[in-house]
Recover the amino acids of this structure.
């Protein structure tokens, strides 16, 4: 895998914020960007000026599709917040086989754990589509985090929720069959919907197979087996005859959510 | 699964520390216990009085073998530090099947993430042998953590290192065969040893199988297949003809450590 981080990322330097212009406090994000950031769960309880302080030294990064933001084992000199687009976190073995650990959702942070841990990223991060992110350098992060204990708690909650996601994933990989893993995934997309449903799978089959820990062939087989449970493929999505029935089929292997 | 936490835990209330006796500051751990705690990685950079402060309100718990310290989904009202013995963290599905996520090592903390996250334990914790632990109530933890920013950073590092362990485990479950997972496990026990080696497996086969995400039959089959790689069972352990050769066999699937 070659590191394409350099040439394919367009960086936008932070725009002078209105506040910053008014009081001459230097550079910062524009009021518009700050408002967008405050809509993210992690920052929703903070005031605009708190957000400005906590993200001091950060910059906005625009990355095209299939850009490596960082590679597994790279020095952890920053963390990211995903504003829009899609990013996969993946591990690679020495034979070069990759496996997706998580597909990052908008508003999620990633990479911050590595800053506290051994200073190297335990996974790589690659965009699945054109993405807009905030990159927060580690130095600035440490300086800023000590300023506000509420933010420390938010950050710990964020890392802890990643950890819970991984615990669930380990449990599923150990206890569930491929069909059950696929069915759980479809049910997660269905939310609390009842009756029949068409869901669009959010990324291509190869990526989905990798995320579910199976080969693309196994994903096709699992899909075929789920036909008995009223699950069929249509166009770019999946049709579920009865969400309730599929939930019943899965209920044996449901883990704590 | 019945919750056996009540009757089977012998609790020892904190012993008055020498310092506490001298300045009349109330109850605390004895100087001996504090010294034992300071030998743990998490606390090694703190002074005895810092440790005393940070663990204010904590108590020592003695639990017999196969005690549930807490169940998956229980309210997260505390976290634990394992002083001696062995504890398994496990998830259970609705059919009652259990899978071990991690076997906690001496000196490790567990459960602290849940306090920051959604307030419920994402896994249960059960002793595998008679264990001695420190139980830190959530309330005391929040009060104490805000007193010392160094401890916040240590705690974040601890949670982050759990997270790295889980990332590695997800990667292994997704990319490795059962034989390779078993071989990696044996190699982890071997450390940087070269040549031939006899290692004692640290817990019984059923527990090991669960931790490696396989059925006990699959573990036996994996062991049989590894015979070609110079791995054989002897008495209560495993004999490896050449650690270097086994490392070669595994190297295709080695993930970032």
């Amino acid at each position: 895998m070659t590191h394409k981080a350099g040439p394919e990322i367009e960086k936008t330097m932070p725009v002078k914020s209105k506040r910053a212009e008014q009081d001459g406090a230097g550079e910062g994000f524009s009021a518009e960007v700050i408002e967008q950031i405050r809509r993210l769960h992690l920052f929703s309880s903070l005031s605009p000026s708190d957000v400005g302080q906590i993200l001091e030294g950060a910059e906005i990064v625009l990355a095209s599709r299939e850009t490596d933001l960082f590679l597994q084992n790279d020095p952890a000199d920053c963390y990211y917040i995903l504003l829009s687009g899609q990013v996969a976190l993946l591990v690679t073995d020495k034979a070069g086989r990759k496996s997706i650990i998580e597909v990052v959702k908008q508003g999620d942070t990633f990479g911050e754990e590595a800053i506290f841990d051994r200073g190297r990223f335990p996974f790589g991060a690659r965009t699945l589509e054109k993405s807009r992110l905030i990159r927060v350098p580690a130095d600035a992060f440490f300086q800023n985090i000590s300023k506000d204990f509420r933010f420390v708690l938010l950050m710990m909650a964020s890392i802890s929720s990643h950890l819970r996601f991984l615990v669930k994933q380990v449990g599923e990989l150990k206890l569930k069959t491929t069909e059950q893993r696929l069915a759980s995934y479809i049910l997660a997309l269905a939310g609390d919907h009842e009756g029949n449903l068409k869901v669009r799978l959010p990324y291509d089959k190869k990526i989905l197979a990798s995320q579910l820990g199976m080969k693309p062939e196994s994903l096709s087989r699992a899909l075929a087996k789920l036909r008995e449970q009223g699950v069929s493929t249509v166009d770019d999505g999946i049709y579920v005859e009865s969400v309730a029935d599929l939930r019943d089929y899965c209920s044996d292997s449901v883990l704590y959510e």
